[in-house]
## 1
Amino acid sequence: MFSSKEAFKQRFLEKFEKMYSKSFAESTLQEQYNTLGQLVREFVSHDWIETNEFYRSNQKKQAYYFSIEFLLGRLLGSNLLNLGVRDIIEVGLKELGVDLIELEEQEVDAGLGNGGLGRLAACFLDSLASLSLPGHGVGIRYKHGLFDQKIVDGYQVELPEQWLRNGNVWEIRKASHSIEVKFGGEVQVSHNGQLMFHHVNAETVTAVPYDMPVIGYQNKVVNTLRLWSAEPSQFRPDKGDVMKYKRETEAISEFLYPDDSHIDGKILRLKQQYFLVSAGLQSIIRSYLKNNYDLLQFHQRVAIHVNDTHPVLAIPELMRILMDEHGFGWEEAWEITTHTISYTNHTTLSEALEKWPTSIFKPLLPRIYMIIEEINERFCKQLWMKYTGNWKRIEEMAIIAHGMIKMAHLAIVGSHSVNGVAQIHTDILKSREMKMFYEFYPYKFNNKTNGITHRRWLMKANPELTSAIKDAIGDEWIVNPKKLALLMDYAKDASFQDKIFEVKQCKKRSLAKRIKSLTGIVVDEQSIFDVQVKRLHAYKRQLLNILHIMYLYNRLKEDANFSITPRTFIFGAKASPGYYYAKKIIKLINTLAVKVNNDPKTKEMLKVIFLENYRVSLAEEIIPAANVSEQISTASKEASGTGNMKFMMNGAITIGTLDGANVEILEEVGSDNIYTFGLTADQVLAYQRNGGYRAHEYYHHNKYLHQVIDQLVGGFFSVTSQEFETIYDSLLVQNDEYFVLKDFHSYVHTHEKLGAAYNDQNSWLEKSIINIAKSGRFSSDRTIKEYADEIWKIHSSKQ
Ligand code: 26W
């Protein structure tokens, strides 16, 4: 169908007329986008069916990645890339007077995630399909994704996101595959030879699946992302207020919770979690049984992965289905369940570890609660055998204690594999947060360092760099990203360095244009583009970056002999709507931007840009244009980070702490090619243990630091002195929980080295090329191979 541009053009025009019954001359961009999207989706239908058929007839073990978030971004561009039809379509459309890039920009990002965890899930889907692995996503079809961010007078304002407003060309509603999910009610027990549990008087919700194709890279594989939507059930007996029921039901899949790393014990969130796992599991089991497979072999044919604890009710839900619906006894059901489920932890921040009060849980999910109680009781008995008399330890490890259900404990007990997302993170889990569990179940723990799909983050986001790489080393790296290492031979090559320089300049020029159109600000394309884009969080320390910019500004103002290589500091970040401190930091960045950008004395040297509404599609424009990647979290706090990998792959040099995957980036590129600074994780953890940190000492002993901190509250900015009081207090009154002051000096000094290094362009370009060359390890293809081989035991259909 897309074999020639002529064939494409004909199909495209036919499709347009069918969809819109008008002449193409009257088409809008939106209609053109919809037409192309529909055409592409229909184009993959055949391979989609074939892929499913292949898995079925070859009895392939399937993996299902359960995740409360999938941060997909736009799909048209990556689908065309993976199908290998982008060029033909681009030329064909051009002849029809249509610009493909303009069409791509019509697509609203699918922003069904907050940040790292959701984007990781999306990268994993791309890798699964591209490696011809039978692995699928299971999630929720939120009507509204992560809020749209507007900046008004420097403050963040949230608006409801509306990604479905023009429909979604990629999804297929499969009403006939709907599932009933039950909430509330009571459990009745009957004795009929064996104990039987009946969930009665429950409120039923219908889960309707919407399937989206996940297209592999030029391999004819099309896997499935199944997103569930909540609708009123037709089987609900007439129980009064229908409108209320409708509202409450639809609310389940209405909004994505916008918090990142902070629990909010809302009952609706718990409903979402159970809705996802119950619909997902029931539907997997339904199709499993349709194939006449024996449930005793479930774990040999199905792997279920829970992405953080949010879908962890998959454990009691699978137990429920096996026991109550299929008559299994506890031991058998437990054997099957624990061998089916595996779990990833994505954070050690205690405020993000999920706990549910039994008082909320029990009435909402009575049968699931009973099962968790039983799991807990049996687990505690096991603990008693090993740690007889050690009540304290048993209490600390219990799943239910003091009226709370600890979801991470349930995840560890009910699964066969527990992994962290970077080596240092896994080590911290084993030696601290999950130490007691590691001692009890050492064989369950393993590391899977995160990765990113090089198809979206290099090939799609940076076609210019892609072709420069291909010209140098061919294209073997596309299917085997480790082969990017062949670029090492070109690191010192003057003409390749020139090319890399040109590519970077070209991406900086495009970003500068975008910045101009979004903010009206003109930035110097020759300046260092220094970028920090990620969720706003105290531990990620955007504040450290800001204090450094304030320092540079002060020095430039006060010391005629002080000079720097011109810099453009670029920020992008959403703050959780209820996170007061994070919102103040956004206001601070914007306030600083106004001051710095308009000062005649510094505006040639320094610019501060805050790009609103940071999201996947904006990341694809920003990251390729970066010279410097800011990865400056308090050591031990960032589980992995994945932005760090995207920047590296696009040739930016990292300034970062020894945290998360930065440690492994250092291992790959060597200390000449990354700028690390600050406390190590061990030092941070030691300070936290011994309480020996005194923030105010750093304030008193560093005059520059003293000055910038005073400026937060002293009329330096044209705002009231209360505006940034919270930030000031976090540093000096609350003793600087994230060691900003402690690391300030080392950060400033390291930035000086970085600035000097940039001025030696040949050596800078060499570093840049080495970063690209060594980024292959951070392709999510590597990560997914490890999950497939070591956890899920699934096999490629090409083997
Ligand atoms: C229940 C509230 C909540 C919401 C989200 C708790 C925890 C989360 C996520 C686990 C936060 C998250 O996205 N973590 C990030 O996961 C990435 C992928 O593994 C890592 O690269 C980041 O370091 C980690 O912060």
## 2
Amino acid sequence: MTILVTGGAGYIGSHTIIELIVAGHNVVVVDNLCNSSKISLERVERITSTQIPFFQADIRDKKALSDILDMYSIDACIHFAGLKAVGESTAYPYEYYDNNIIGTLNLISVLRKHNIKNIIFSSSATVYGEPATIPITEECPKGKCTNPYGWTKWMIEQMLMDLHTADPTFNIVILRYFNPIGAHQSGLIGENPNGVPNNLMPYITQVAVGKREYLHIFGNNYDTPDGTGVRDYIHVVDLARGHVKALEAINRNCGVAIYNLGTGKGYSVLEIVKAFESVNGMKIPYVIDPRRPGDIATCYSDPQKAQRELGWKADNGIEEMCRDSWNWQRRNPNGYEQ
Ligand code: NAD
Ligand code: UD1
């Protein structure tokens, strides 16, 4: 198949492109590079020995998108493009709704005009809010999000489902990611946050590489075994492979399908720190800070639906995730900046 990948220069997109190419698909990438570098795609080209058609364009630009789609015969779109920083979304809600919601509406409009009706969307476990049940199955009701970023995911999911109701020839796969970490084993591509990392693993690797003095652990008085927050960390390469499996579902005319992509195992912040230290043979100094507003105690998936219906499960464990995160950071202390 030929796949339009929006946001393909980003962290998850770049890893997914590799797995798509390995599986024999062609890709066309659109990204405005607002949170990424073209170097990631050059590295992907090196890893796959494949030239990747890339267009620097904003998904809110209908004409640019339309011109690109006129040039290719696209079978499906994997839609990663979006802004994703939780704290920033609280400070700039308009920008988040504009980019994520208006961007997605534009994209759908152009896809529809080109009769492309197969869409895979990057959603997040954040749509469950404070989860009603743990482990979280896809039947768990969507909850109240704590920030505009989360609401954009929540609303886009709804928009896509309504689209399918009105026109059942759309095939929509909504993938709810848990906590992606890790990097491609080559160490050539990985997560490249701007400024101070918001997420746990990039913060740990920046402490490890000497860019930050110590990790701030946000709260040790949660109702969890060691008091720190528990999450379902998933290796980004496993996550990427989940998208290839989702394409197979689309080929079977799945209608609307929602899948959790997680491992089903929860690790606390302290367990992650210990695993990172033991796998990589180094110390990560930390301090305990107050809880971060909006954080929940525990969040991990029941990933059985994806296993049952897609034949997908995560293969990499916490050791591989810690090893590959560090391998990327140590080889690229400044990310894609030379
Ligand atoms: P990322 O920021 O690395 O990648 C997103 C890409 O989209 C970037 O390359 C950015 O330049 C591009 N982009 C943003 N707005 C655009 C626009 N208007 N037009 C064109 N390109 C645009 O983020 P990621 O971690 O790779 O996440 C990919 C998707 O998965 C996002 O939608 C994100 O919300 C979602 N997601 C990520 C996580 C996570 O922990 N990383 C968890 C759940 C869901
Ligand atoms: C966060 C977002 C979520 C988003 C996901 C992926 C919030 C409330 N949620 O999830 O919407 O989909 O990122 O981008 O921001 N931690 C520390 N110190 C740090 C960083 C994190 O102790 O410097 C702790 C957190 O309190 C949490 C765990 O580590 O318990 C994981 O945090 P993080 O990596 O930010 O992911 P989430 O909060 O699960």
